Amino acid sequence: MDIFELAYRALDLTEQTGADEAEIFCVSGRSIIVDIHRDTIDMAKESLVSGIGIRAIVNGAVGFASTNNPLRVEEASILAVKSARIRSGDPEWSGLPKKDKPAVVRDIFDKRIADIEIESCIDYTARMIKGAMAIPSVVPTSGHFLCSSSTSLILNSHGVEIKDQDTAISASIDTITKDSDLSTASEFDLSRKLDIDFYKIGEKAALLASRSRDGVRAQTQDTAVLLEPMAFADILENTLLASLNSDNVQKGRSSLIGKMGKKIAADDLSLIDDGTLPAGIGTASSDDEGTPSKRVEVVKNGMLQSFLYDCYTAGKEKRESTGNAMRASFTSTPSISIRNLVVQHPSSDIVAETGDGVIVNTIIGAHTANPISGDFSVEARNSFLIKNGEIASPVKSMMISGNIFDILRGIDGAGKDVRRIGNVITPTIRVSKMRVVG
Predict the structure, then answer these.
(1) Per-residue pLDDT band at 291 (split at 50, 70, 90)
(2) Per residue in 316-333, is it b (16+ CB within 10 Å) or e — as a string?
(3) Which of 63, 119, 354, 366 is 20 to 30 A from 99 (CA-CA)?
(4) Separation CA 313–CA 323 (nearest Å)
(5) Distance of CA 156 to CAs 83, 97, 266, 387, Å?
(6) Is the pLDDT of residue 116 over 90?
(7) Angle formed by the axes of helices 73-85 and 3-16, to 10°?
């Protein structure tokens, strides 16, 4: 009996053991990892994973168990029910999702990735190294290649039955200059399809490291700051997203409490979380508890329109889930997360339109931000001065600090360089005034 047949068996067992409601999350997948150490491929390995996660609900209390052993599925079903029984019932539990038509999505599965051989993965990784070595005086220091394919199945006692197949591929590399004026840079790409230019990843990282040499000191001041996609996505994920989480809102841990329908960002800025985005990293026909994926307008023309909900938090407000229940793996229960957060703003040549300022490629330390207040102070890496509408000298060392809600209100421009940074899709954005510490 394969893992998916066992999933149906687990649903029956969990209900027979005494669950009022039961949910089965089953996954089977394959991944290949290749690591780079300096300019050499250090390790390559293939892994297989399969397992079942079981949620059992008894009198509003939720129990959970998981297993990757087909012989222990019955034991996991019993354990999930026992776990629920020893917990206090939650009077606000409104039930697992009901059966509904899953969303139609496309471009999340590529058979070439599903069938890829480890030798091809090594070749792609070698191309990335070659690209980095093509720039004189720059060498790679480390890197990573990962591709995966998986099939997931969600079942519950209300008739939900959703099966999805997906693939993903990603690659990254870190580089450093060889001369006395050390400068580092990194680059990466990821996709649902086998359409990445691996040579270009290495080349771009090496070029950025080379361009970042001979940096000057930045002046401490309030000035225009251009945040490139990697920097802006990093700030968003570590500041704003916690405040959009409906669980945090309901528990009083969000700066956006009482702001629904009010202006929180610049007039031209919109944020859309789209679980149906073609080829999106967070795209699937449903979220990880079986709610059909949706396109949710979170911020529209600067106005807060929606928080992000799973089935439980939506039930507490007697509204529909936005389809934002996601899992790290079959060994964990769902939690609220973005699907594909798309940043929209009218685009233009914002460098040319910026008299003086700085442009920041990446940041370090965003994880230290305050997720409730949105305050942050981070080190800006691979940054450059902007003088008279042109990118000028690299900056040797610089900190930027601020508050995410001030940033959202201060955005007055966006570039044409839209990039997918994990589950965030954003262009470079310009903030009219931010604190720069040299």
Answers:
(1) very high
(2) eeeeebbbbbbbeebbeb
(3) 63
(4) 11
(5) 18, 8, 42, 59
(6) yes
(7) 40
| Domains, the chain | 3-209 (3.30.2290.10), 215-438 (no CATH)
Query: Where does 215-301 have alpha helices with state H?
Result: 229-244, 246-250
Helices vs. strands in the chain: H and E counts, helices first: 9, 21
Task: Say how many CA atoms lie within 13 Å of 119 toward its Cβ.
Answer: 0
Model confidence over 184-235: pLDDT tens digits? 999 999 999 999 999 999 999 999 999 999 999 999 999 999 999 999 999 9
Pair 81, 19: CB distance under 8 Å: yes
Average confidence score pLDDT of the chain: 97
* Alpha carbons 328 and 250: distance in angstroms, whole number: 23
Of 48-62, 171-185, 294-308, which gets the smallest average pLDDT?
Answer: 171-185
Give CA–CA dist 253/317, Å, rounded.
17
pLDDT digits (tens, 9 = 90+) for 312-346: 999 999 999 999 999 999 999 999 999 999 999 99
pLDDT band for position 181 (cuts 50, 70, 90): confident
In this prediction, residue 10 carries a pLDDT of: 97
Q: How many CB atoms lie within 10 A of CB 92?
A: 12
CA distances 329 to 50, 162, 193, Å, are 10, 16, 21
Rounded Cα–Cα distance for residues 140 and 264 (Å): 42
Give the Cα-Cα-Cα angle 135, 137, 139 (nearest 5 degrees): 75
What is the spatial distance between Cα 161 and Cα 298, in angstroms, rounded to a whole number? 28
Q: Is the separation of the CB atoms in 152 and 164 below 8 Å?
A: yes
Q: Residue 82, Cα to own-chain centre: how many angstroms?
A: 34
Confidence band of 4 (pLDDT split at 50, 70, 90)? very high
**Among all chains, which residue has been given the structure tokens 């197949």?**
165
Whole-number Å distance between alpha carbons of 322 and 310: 6
Residue 328 tokens read as 């790290």
- 143 beta partners: 36, 173
C-alpha span between 225 and 336 (Å, rounded): 31
Cβ(410)–Cβ(227) below 8 Å: no
